[in-house]
Amino acid sequence: xxxxxxxxxxxxxxxxxxxxxxxxxxxxxxxxxxxxxxxxxxxxxxxxxxxxxxxxxxxxxxxxxxxxxxxxxxxxxxxxxxxxxxxxxxxxxxxxxxxxxxxxxxxxxxxxxxxxxxxxxxxxxxxxxxxxxxxxxxxxxxxxxxxxxxxxxxxxxxxxxxxxxxxxxxxxxxxxxxxxxxxxxxxxxxxxxxxxxxxxxxxxxxxxxxxxxxxxxxxxxxxxxxxxxxxxxxxxxxxxxxxxxxxxxxxxxxxxxxxxxxxxxxxxxxxxxxxxxxxxxxxxxxxxxxxxxxxxxxxxxxxxxxxxxxxxxxxxxxxxxxxx
Length: 324
What we know:
Elements: E1 10-11, H1 12-17, H2 25-30, E2 34-38, E3 41-44, H3 45-50, H4 53-66, E4 73-74, H5 76-83, E5 95-98, E6 111-114, E7 123-126, E8 129-132, H6 134-144, H7 147-157, E9 161-163, E10 169-171, H8 175-183, H9 191-200, H10 208-219, E11 226-227, E12 231-232, E13 238-239, E14 243-244, E15 248-252, H11 256-259, H12 261-264, H13 269-284, E16 289-293, H14 295-298, H15 301-310
Parallel strand pairs: 4-8, 5-6, 15-16
Antiparallel strand pairs: 1-3, 2-3, 4-5, 7-8, 9-10, 11-14, 12-13, 14-15
């Protein structure tokens, strides 16, 4: 994840302290010149509209922290953002924090409190913020979020290393460690579902689209594909399709493959498309079927099912047994 450009907050308390309190702020908000993130925190509308989802949610998190009397411990999606974990369907508007089991903090004004036990070992400082550890963040999301969203977070967080939002690197959390953690929480809500999510996760998944693809393929009843299997080329190198079955290869085509620098490496869109076509031709020359899909097909499992069947795949008689 590339570190987003930070949006500069305008805080009412600072304006009052410096004597620059803007008495026409309400008119500025109504006129669309500034955006109110929460009471006492604003950003320039032009910069807000130009920012990506990561930067916008980071601004919401910062606004929530800066306008509270005490420093919260950020959790769930709010902690996931700081750890550099990708969100499948974008970030929420609410900011999440842990209050601990002995308190009864009420969720309001865009801040969602989770009143669950919190050990000191699960609290870390990520830049200017307090947040749950990566292990605690992943286990919380695995227990509380739908399968596709949870698996997306888990696929990324269980890699050997994760790149945090600030650009620094941290060790990922091995699946075995997460399973041990969940095993010690047997009485907690959602542990059974979370255990399934962790077992299903795979750190070889290359993107949120690939994570979502695996969940949809599973729900359709198809056998488990292998990920990133090398396919030898004539020049001595290898191609690495996203998904490999005995009968076919599968590729998720997200827009990022053609426009994001981390994938294009300075090549034009035309060159990327050309190289991708050559790569597909090489994979087809092995005699296997070829299935390609994008976000639209993932949103409609009937479309994805038709694509997989056309490539020669068929649902398995026993769906779950081959997945973990």
